[in-house]
Design brief:
The structure is a single chain. With 291 residues, the chain is α/β, with parallel strands linked by helices. It is 42% helix and 22% strand. The protein has eight helices and ten strands. The strands form three sheets. The chain has a six-stranded mixed sheet, with helices on both faces. Helix 3 packs antiparallel against helix 4 and helix 5 packs parallel to helix 6. The radius of gyration is 23 Å and the shape is elongated.
Length: 291
């Protein structure tokens, strides 16, 4: 499938914008923050006092008459899976970019970091269903295809159900994978599915929030449409009581979301759309590397 000119332009521009960041800093932070995904057999060698006795190759030891151990090398290839919320709430932004555009930019940074390290990258787009899945592969052309999908794909549903994609990849990812889950997490009941996937795979929740979602701006009478349900409500945003009730409601939703994320016991990165969107990710990797 050929890329529409506007999508191709976006993909190329995104690569140009992220290349310097990836080359100068991010790729090293990304790769060193994650451990090898397993151990592969390398060779047998004679046992040396102090070696782990659990590594002794008993059958070879019996045949040779002296102890040998199995030597393993760490697998350094990292498989990256981008799990991206494409529900209606991502088509919102009070600043320069929608939340979905910010997610695409962060996904590009991670993808080109993986490309630099010759790691395979996969993509799963979801709403309240699995919208689109691309198995992990390597190569620049593959990364361009993933970014095209992030920009060009039109979801069938506008709703959100985070447990759905997590249950899906739980069944198909056999090798331990680094999963980055991008969403505003405007959902409930996802903590158990997220905790299950976090026990098997190295999982990071990227929480993208727009400041207007927490504090209603004073712009007079305005119609608000729920991007997921389509419901429309007219509010007087100049009203102190309306602003207060809205702030309480959103604070309650945030507290519920945070409780679910804590119960899931996965690492998380907070991205605010009115601040530097890449630095929180870099800081996260730097904290990992310092452990």
């Amino acid at each position: 499938m050929s890329l529409p000119p506007e999508i191709l332009k976006k993909v190329k521009l995104l690569e140009i914008k992220t290349r310097k960041l990836v080359n100068n800093l991010f790729a090293g932070e990304y790769h060193s923050a994650f451990r090898g995904q397993g151990m592969t057999f390398s060779e047998f060698r004679e046992y040396i006092p102090g070696d782990d006795v659990r590594a002794i190759a008993w059958s070879l030891t019996a045949r040779a008459g002296k102890p040998y151990i199995k030597k393993y090398d760490e697998e350094r290839e990292l498989t990256l899976m981008l799990v991206v919320d494409v529900s209606g709430s991502e088509d919102f932004g009070s600043k320069n970019y929608f939340k979905g555009e910010i997610i695409a930019h962060l996904a590009a940074v991670l993808s080109f970091s993986a490309l630099k390290n010759k790691d395979p990258v996969g993509l799963l787009l979801f709403s309240d269903q699995v919208e689109h899945f691309v198995p992990p592969r390597k190569g620049r052309g593959h990364i361009h295809r993933l970014l095209r999908d992030l920009y060009f794909f039109k979801p069938r549903s506008q709703k959100t159900k985070i447990a759905v994609p997590l249950d899906f990849i739980q069944g198909i990812l056999k090798k331990r994978t680094n999963i980055f889950l991008f969403s505003d997490f405007m959902d409930k009941g996802f903590d158990q599915a997220l905790r299950r996937i976090g026990k098997k795979h190295d999982t990071v929740a990227i929480v993208v929030t727009d400041p207007t979602e927490m504090q209603l701006p004073n712009v007079g009478l305005i119609d608000f449409e729920d991007p997921e349900s389509g419901d429309v409500m007219t509010l007087d945003t100049s009203s102190i009581s309306v602003q207060r009730d809205y702030a309480k409601l959103m604070q309650k939703r945030k507290e519920e979301r945070d409780r679910e994320l804590r119960r899931a016991q996965v690492e998380r990165v907070e991205i605010l759309t009115d601040q530097d969107i890449v630095q929180p990710l870099i800081s996260f990797f730097q904290r990992r590397n310092s452990k």
